[in-house]
Inverse folding.
């Protein structure tokens, strides 16, 4: 199955946690149905991206990257690539590349969706339609700064940067709720 079809199937089967998330999911599906190239960075005025809320095994900390292009603390994530079979694969690949951590584990199912301005092609691409996944790092994982970031760091849930994007705070709340349901990160 193609990445595009997988993305449609995953979004279509996702039980969103709120009416706002359901509305956003439906907009993503409409975009994908209208744009056969909707998962690729060349699709304008918007395209689908994938990102990861990376937590430590004890579910006490979240990993954020200081994105070089945006100049803000963000979750790891980015554009889909031809080798990605699913959006979860894209999120896992991006998280591994941007954190330098091997052995990350993506938990099943979509965590959250978010629509935000796209910094990738100003004036051409207006929005990223971001599909977010919950990812667990191995014990004692030490992040490494990548070419795309100026810093990579673990933050306690109550120690987030002051200027963090509100949608990231919402993603973290969704991650905490999912972890509570799961009884911790991996048990």
């Amino acid at each position: 199955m193609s990445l595009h079809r997988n993305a449609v199937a995953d979004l279509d089967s996702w039980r969103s946690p709120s009416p706002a998330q359901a509305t956003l999911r439906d907009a993503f599906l409409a975009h994908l149905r209208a744009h056969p190239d909707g998962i690729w960075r060349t699709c304008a005025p918007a395209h689908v991206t994938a990102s990861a809320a990376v937590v430590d095994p004890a579910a006490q900390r979240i990993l954020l990257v200081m994105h070089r292009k945006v100049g803000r603390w963000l979750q790891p994530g980015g554009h889909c690539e031809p080798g990605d079979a699913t959006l979860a694969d894209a999120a896992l690949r991006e998280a591994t590349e941007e954190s330098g951590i091997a052995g990350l584990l993506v938990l099943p199912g979509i965590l959250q969706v978010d629509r935000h301005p796209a910094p990738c092609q100003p004036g051409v691409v207006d929005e990223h339609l971001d599909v977010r996944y919950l990812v667990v790092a191995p014990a004692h994982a030490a992040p490494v700064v990548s070419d795309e970031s100026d810093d990579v760091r673990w933050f306690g849930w109550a120690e987030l940067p002051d200027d963090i994007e509100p949608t990231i705070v919402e993603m973290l709340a969704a991650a905490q709720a999912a972890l509570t349901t799961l009884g911790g990160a991996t048990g």
Q: What stands out?
A: The CA atoms of residues 8 and 29 lie 6 Å apart. Residues 3-182 form a domain with the Nucleoside Triphosphate Pyrophosphohydrolase fold (CATH 3.90.79.10). The chain has a mean pLDDT of 92.
